Records
---
Amino acid sequence: MNYTDESLVGAQITLTNCDREPIHIPGSVQPFGFLLCLDEETHQIVHASANTGSMVGLAPDQLLGGMLDRLLGPEHLAQVEALWPALVEIPKLMGVRLDAVAGQPFYKLILHRHDDLIWAEFEPVADTAASSLDLPTLNTTLGLMLESETVLDFCQHAVEQVRQITGFDRIMLYRFAEDESGEVIAESKRADLEPFLGLHYPATDIPKQARLMYLKNWLRFIPDVNYAPAPLVPVRNPTSGRPPDMTYAVLRSVSPIHIEYLQNMGVGASMSISIIQEGKLWGLIMGHHYSPRLVSYELRDLSLFVGKTFSALLKNKEQHDDREYQQRIRENRLRLFNKMTSQANFIDGLYKQAPTLLDVMDCGGAAICFEGETITLGNTPTKPQIEELLSWFQQHVREDVFHTNCYVRHNPAGVAIRAVASGILAISLAKEPGNCIFWFRPELVQSVTWAGHQQKVEVMRDGEVHLSPRQSFEAWKQTVDSTAAPWKSIEIEAAKEIRLHISDIRVKIFNELQSRASMLSRLNAELERSNDELDSFAYVASHDLKEPLRGIHNYSLFLLEDYASQLDAEGVSKLQTLVRLSQRMEALIESLLQLSRVGRMELAVTETDMNEVVADVVDLLHPRLEQNQATVSVRGPLPTLFVDPVRIREVFNNLITNAMRYNNKPERQIVIGQAPAGISSPRGPVNPEEFAVFYVRDNGIGIEARHYDSIFKLFKRLHAPDKFGGGTGAGLAIVKKMVEKHHGELWVDSVVGKGTTFYFSLSKTL
């Protein structure tokens, strides 16, 4: 889209037409240097700024049609010509001496290619010594910017560094809002100057065509706002019929409206650096000096480096801020859910202890309307006003989740509560009317500070009315009625999650009470019958089966002791086999009983330090570990969870024992730790907000992948009973049931001959 009108070239620019001013083709330059435009094919000079005579003693007509050898000696000319093939819009800088000019002065030469021209801009210097790159300053700048933890800190470091580089009286960082208005969010200034931090500016301060220029040319510099422009000779290009496009020119002359704007502010020199994010203008680093100030090209370039670095890092800083806020919302929401679930009355969990509804998101207040009762937290409307809001909500809102940052737009009567409730986020708790939760946000800024009047000021000049930029930069107040900060998507999603969680609780408690009571009755009957059968089985297994087994075992031992001398070797061997089989049968029955107990048990959940659990188990197994030359190391501190500590000790005991048993290495190494976020189980990625994942890793014999599922089956063994210390094959089945009791999952990863890692997850919301 073209926002400019090229017919305005040479016309008087006023506030009535400045939004169409073709600022990219001003036809003149700022006179802190001079400009030559060369035909990109012939390299002949086709434009020269009118100030060449005053700067180098050669009038434009003496230069036009000639070559750069009118200024440069052979050596520098050769260096320049070597750059021509690679020139693009990005400028190239070199130091040159004008050998063909009287006095042979030194200049900085800035070259770029654009609009079918080669642009040669000359800035005078005292000698050939180029400003050295201040590496310590650059290192400090980058370090501070990288270490910034918040966007505002990041912005503050940026303005301080640019001010240190340029020596300007004031450097500001100006951020654009969605409506293209702006706000000064960071500032570094001379101590005696009035602060601009927090001031807002209307979008009309920066016309559309200027914003487009800011996207193309990152840095604009005006060393003296009272300069007299030096026109190009000729002004219009004979080929295009218009002035050449100076979008990328360092010396480009500035709109007279902008100059008048700066003069009205008392500014003597100005500089601005674009902040660009994903192709859009995010903001500006703006510098003001209250007298003329010529900053060297190298220091301007270093300031531009800060601006581009800022632009490159900005997204990460914003994402960091967003992640911090999202993490806080998630953590408080999960804690809120835990409290709701643990309370006899789930409503108590919403407000009686921190975190409350107020802690889930940034807001001023909240209200819970439930079964005719209204509970308020923080700054809220009065209870009668909340009742009126509830009545309006029931009549006009059909969706389950409603949000607005300007309630008055929906209900004019909302003006009465705008101070505390211009913004409203609401969720309905169930189909029954009158059950809702409201979050409130106050009026964003009841009197926003703006820099000067937003309307254009009419003034008398030479007996005629002229439009002029603001004649004063004194702040004035514009009332922003009944508008709050908008609700973020993460906040709306959090409200939806809370609604779903509460709705689920309500459905379970109220809407399905009768059906659940009936189901519970049937389940109780079935459970009682199952328990009776299980008790009978336990009795038989422990008494009727174990007693005969003990008898077989004992009599076999008696036979060996009393009659072994009368038996041949085969008879003795058979008796010994009988002893082993009876022992194994008793161990199998004991494992079956233990598995049955795990399935019937109720967890005794307490807040448990997993470091202490592992330490207890390792201490208990210490003699066996020493005997097997096994070492156990724990990686990093383990978290504290709500679990059954007795059962989790059994889990670690079994896994450590297996790691020690199924290992044929001289040094048996066992490592225990918490798995990093992002780990996946056979069912898919594990949500780190809901589960903690632990691992027990060894350097043992390993397990083939085809056995990964079968090893968790009851009495499933991969080796003969007499290998690797025996065992019943029930241990992992028991561990699996204990983990599942904690709503978790058990799985394995292994490399044959190198070792095995068992992972298990435990719910964080028991």
---
Amino acid sequence: MVSIRAGWFPRWRAPAAVAAGALPALAFPAPALWWFAYVALVPWMLLLRSAPTGRRAVLEGWLGGAAFILAVHHWLLPSLHVFLVPVAALLGLLWIPWALLVRELLGGIPAAGRVAAALVLVPAGWLLSELARSWQGLGGPWGLLGASQWQVPPALRLASVGGVWLVSLLVVAVNCALVLLIAVPRARVPAMAGVTGCAVLTGLVWLWAPRPQPSGELRVAVVQPGLVADGPDSAERRFAAGERLTRGLAGQSVDLVVWGESSVGGDLTARPDLAGRLASLSAQVGAPLLVNVDARAADSPGIRKSAVLVGPQGLTGDRYDKMRLVPFGEYVPARALLGWATSVGKAAAEDRVPGDTPVLMNLPGRPDGRPGVRLGPLVCFESAFPDMSRHLARDGAALLVAQSATSSFQDSWAPAQHASLAALRAAETGRPMVHATLTGVSAVHGPSGERIGPALPTSASTARVYEVPLAGGTTFYVRHGDWSVAAALAALAAYCVVEGLRSLRRPAPEPSPPPARTARGSAARRVR
């Protein structure tokens, strides 16, 4: 019986780790079961705490991490095909330290001190994996656990204090406390204290954190042309659709018109015809146009993606070149080694050229006396990076604008996932954010992360005007940055130091005596 059970148990655990690791993906859009994030890690953590060996915890942490990456990014399969599997396997390695922490701190019957340490260090270990994969070269901070709370006002208030990182820490801490409540009856008191502490922290932040102070509003129009069939003239047809929709805004007293990513297929300095048409549109509408050029530059080598501001007199000179490019979508990392990815998927055949500096653009004042404002443009998945929007807000941006295009993933979870990030960036910075796309989902969020007006779904081809509230003041996160990250890393470092000192003080095991030689044993060896 023992041998059968020992052989069956490991075979069952591996698929369980895969299934448990994939569960948290349901908390993100499109399912958007935000509440599920607070229990989604429990099955995985229960499995890890019962791992019979550290090696087993390493395997199950890796399998669960790879499954999480595949589940959250499954919509990349049409582009990357089989290449997504080795990418997920590589990124899954980042969850190994967290898995070992779960086994060490939650395994067995932990004492009160170890329970308290677990409620701090297990969330910090999870955050370590999020930080590592947030590097652009590993895909960027897509699918951070805290981002699943984009529509929860108390969580957005937490983000204004410690960024999305603080929200991730809170979510994992709640999961950790639930594991203790389920698996360790003796630890229920400190576990309940942990849950209560999370609730009290959220309540204190809700009461104490300063709210954005209203300072006027802007009328911003989002132009979403919708799907345009591929073909040699698709860029011109997309431009014409945006042009037609923008003309319908005439007489609506808008302050800014925003087009999506890659809405213009020719360099405007080399295409005076396109620049002239945009200037004419700006004059008709009575507002500048923020368009996005995806074209080979006339005055420099390579293709760039650029946010360009156009007024009634033509190009204003305000231009931002996208700095953080999408791995494989806009460039192939280590192309000499990984260039074969272009033959099995839709990886970029040519690397785009990144920009080198953020840019603030100036919107002119209105004839009624309202002063101009400064806007901070971002392009595509740059809206996933908290540091970029934070720096723009700190430098004086009153409005954040992200131009995006998720046409390749139209019927997947990607458009909704991408649009949800605007709520986090708005809440973190205390600045409203406009997320404008070619084919949806387009959305606008106010300075507290709240939704402004209805989102434009992927089925829409329209232009819509939003009354966007502006806000003054500065959030704690903009002032102090990633302090929650520093605190988590400091806690992990302290734990490593303490464990290292304990291992040095622990006496080395005495060598075991050699086995006794017996006449029977010697005879047996001779027979063999």
---
Amino acid sequence: MKIHASRLGLLLLSLPLALGSISLSAEANPTSSSTVASTETKTTIPQVSSETQLKAIATDPIAQNVTSVSQLSDVRPTDWAFTALQSLVERYGCIAGYPDSTFRGKQATSRYEFAAGLNACLDKINEIISAGLADKVSKEDLATLQKLQEEFAAELATLRGRVDALDAKTAKLEAQQFSTTTKLSGEAIFSVSGATGANPNNSGTNTNIVFNNRVRLNLLTSFSGKDLLITGLQATNINSLAAPLGYADPLGSSSNVKLGFENQFLNFNPSNSNTAAANSVNLYKLLYIFPVADKLTMFAGSNAEVSDAFPAISPFASEGQGSISRFGQGLNAATRVSGGTSGTGLAAAVGFIWTPSDKVDFRALYGSVNSAIPTNSATTLLGAGFFGGSSVAAAQLTLKPTSTLDIGLNYANSYHQINILGTGLASADINAISGAGTALTDPIKMNSIGSTLTWRITPKIAFNLSGAWIFANLTNKDASTTFTSWMTGFHFNDVFNEGNTAGLIFGQPLARNAVGGLANPTGITAKPYHLEGYFNFKLSKNISVTPGVFFVFNPEGINNAPTATVGVVRTTFTF
């Protein structure tokens, strides 16, 4: 039997009679299958094999019910079965067509597609009988249906079997689904690393080869489709290589030789001096983002970082795929100041995002380290309260004058109740303004400015340049220090194979540039320099391996210190 209306089966799939997602063409196209990818969770969801047909329907105007097959102007069937079904269709309205009254078909429909139409009429008549309107169905129609059922018994049985299987799978998915509003994404990093070039002035030693991990799980929840609640959990056991080398600050939080995926504090909360065991699961992110106007978005969170709000201009800024060093990530010191990229979500923050055009993006925030603590104590060195403790007000203007050029301009105004910077980039972070008469307990105020530029020279080569200045002053003493840092490098895409990336980086880590008043650091007058190379090799869509090495000349600005060499092999799993 041939019916020159290939769209018949497709149109019938759109009927609201449990046919909309039935696989009807498996015999005709046994390889038809598809996946739907989620950009946030990076997971795939298998679909029924009728998706090809459903996509065809989706590209056409919405199907509408018609009252007569004769309204479908391009159908000229001659088979008795179609004529019988046509009679049923005209009486019971169990078929759908397009708004311009056509099927738009030039190929023969299959028996399974035709059986779908018959099944629709059977369901419609069952509805009528169940509603107590059996007298509306004639004996002739029932006889016709019986004859059609006999001829298409095999197709109807297959069709209904697939419906039952689909219903069972749907029920199982509904029972086992994680959430209707939340998607889960994750990242697991394994690293093998080691370092040489210990500081002889600080009893430093070259490190052993170590094997560490960091795991993050992010729950991404949307209640309206336009908002986003980010809940992040993490566990890590990455011990700093800086401490044994003799190049870390007293808290072990900041150094020129920190790894890019290493948290600023290892299971230590500087806001209340609490500690936890390695690989303890902690809440490192809790942030809600929601629109308030056409081009204005607000955000607020109790665990957040500046880098959550400000777009990264640097092509190296990916802890799992980019630079292997903290400095090489390319987030300038004005972005990192006050723990803005600590990796532990130190601060509570509120702010806004204003995007007046595709070429201009302006963001600003206020953050407080100890917003949850009601009063100062001996263990809350950074103060207490949302407005009473250490805080930062920061902004970033992002400009995109051309499709190949991104520019970021940063400013931050910070106040800390102790003498620290909070960048994590150098041991000078602690006792930042040092000299006779200064102390760690001295409050400090900072004005930080920075800029970053990325120029995509070709689709596969990008040039990056960034710099920052931090102007720091003690608030209770005449002592000041200016810190500077800059970095430049090239980023390469699709190296040897699609998806592979590489980076070559050179720059000056954060260093004291000028001092005033009581400030007079001794033995720390050399300029440190950083040289790095890495290659990120994609084993698959979700697995990458990144070998790399970086050298720090004159680490921490210590006069006559040997060059520090750090080698890393990082393996990243995303899911």
---
Amino acid sequence: MTEQATEAPKPHPRAPRANAPQPVTVERLTGAQSLIRSLEAVGADTVFGIPGGAILPAYDPMMDSTKVRHVLVRHEQGAGHAASGYALATGKVGVCMATSGPGATNLVTPIADAHMDSVPMVAITGQVASPSIGTDAFQEADICGITMPVTKHNFLVTDPAEIPRTIAQAFHLAATGRPGPVLVDIAKDALQAQTTFSWPPSQDLPGYRPVSRPHAKQIREAARLLGESRRPVLYVGGGVIKAGASAELKELAELSGVPVTTTLMALGALPDDHPLHLGMPGMHGSVTAVTALQKSDLIIALGARFDDRVTGKIDSFAPYAKIVHADIDPAEIGKNRTADVPIVGDVKDVLRELSAVLREEQAAGRAHDFGAWRELLDRWRTTYPLGYDLPEDGSLSPQQVIERIGRLAPENTVYTAGVGQHQMWAAHFLNFTRPGTWLNSGGLGTMGYAVPAALGAKAGRPDATVWAIDGDGCFQMTNQELVTAALNGLPVKVAIINNGALGMVRQWQTLFYNQRYSNTTLHSGPDDVAPDLKGTRVPDFVKLAEAMGCVGLRCEDPADLDSVIEKANSINDRPVVVDFIVHEDAMVWPMVAAGTSNDDIMAARGVRPDFGDLDD
């Protein structure tokens, strides 16, 4: 039964008012049907998940939906990372679904990952029937309590009438302000019961008032500090990409002439080849980017959070610099470094208004000249460029593999990465010219992110080529999702940078643990175990790929590198996995050792930069 009502719902206090009342659709449905109708109404077109007892009522009406596609993953962690990859590649809210108990707890890692990296995601979980909540019923877990520290908000729904309003609010919360994950936990009896479905629902979110427009006084104060500075730097974080503000960033940089560093989460916000781009700062950032921040007298931080991987030892970070910190989340401002000028607001608006003030000043004859600063930075960039040595034994260099993948990939390829050495090499040796083409786990550092995130990105952008750059350690955590990719027509490409070890951990053992390689070798076990497997590859990634419905390739000889990559690029009817056997001793440089000052950056092993500025 469907009725049409003319009374408009109560709008969100900050929502624009409609010119005329909107008709309200009212129907009698089950709670599960109401859930699927709500997902359709908010524009969700793809859900990654696995059914189970408590969520099963929702899977029956989803089968009838012509608007919501469900992608059946092989592990709930894969569902969460796929939703994240979908969200980052499309700019829309990613959706994942799981059942109660272990299904829900398997989502905790990707939810925490999305929380750290401000990814808009809605996770929907089934819960045991409401009378059983709190009784330690079969497959019961307090997922709201478990995820409270790592969600932007979460809901427990026991009344089926609350489902439409809750879904509408969850998507609103996930996508507005500082994006983040929202959990909706729905009791099984609420999914099974009859209810009245009404859309659009009224929204009432008291206390949720994200500030978008920055204060004009703070913008002018930031412009004043810029005018007084000699060595300013724009420190750009992932918030610029989340805000869709890459064009505004480029405009401000070119208008002001201020050099730019882009964090691991912000790669592509300004093209890598732009003359004002210094590279990535941080523990494994470029020497120029790290040192520019360290020697600056003004840092304008845009959608960044001064995390430890960028700052190094915080009390020695950028000791000469005043700080302008712009972020939509007021909790980030002053959390790790005191801001001289705090600006709360959407970074897109901050950039626009700061550019407007600078244009006014330039029209009045108050132009800024940072030419001497840029010349100094260019000298550092020339003296300490990113690079690598080819192995003396003629084996494959991991950096060379990644660099060639980037050179041979089609334009606008989307890259995902796991965590570790291959992630840092990809950040250095791929060329990022557009936002939304680099997806990785930055804040949480989740191994196993690359493959499920890649299939999520491919589901959201089917016309784009998607390469997952993975390590052999990361790949073995979530490679089962290649079955998901193969069976759902998601032909991603996976490059396994196979050095037979947990590479980044092994690098630390080399540098800080006297080369005692405790439990970091992956291709063999203890000497007295499984002697029949000595000298073999376990697992054989080519055979594993083929067993999962993918094309499996292997490359060991640098002479074959380009032809293997080109073959992988030419296959677009199923996933491709390429096992690149690389030298095990390659290391990531530059490097700032954990807990030390950025002043102690090493350009390479045993090579400490000399900037000739001890009198500064």
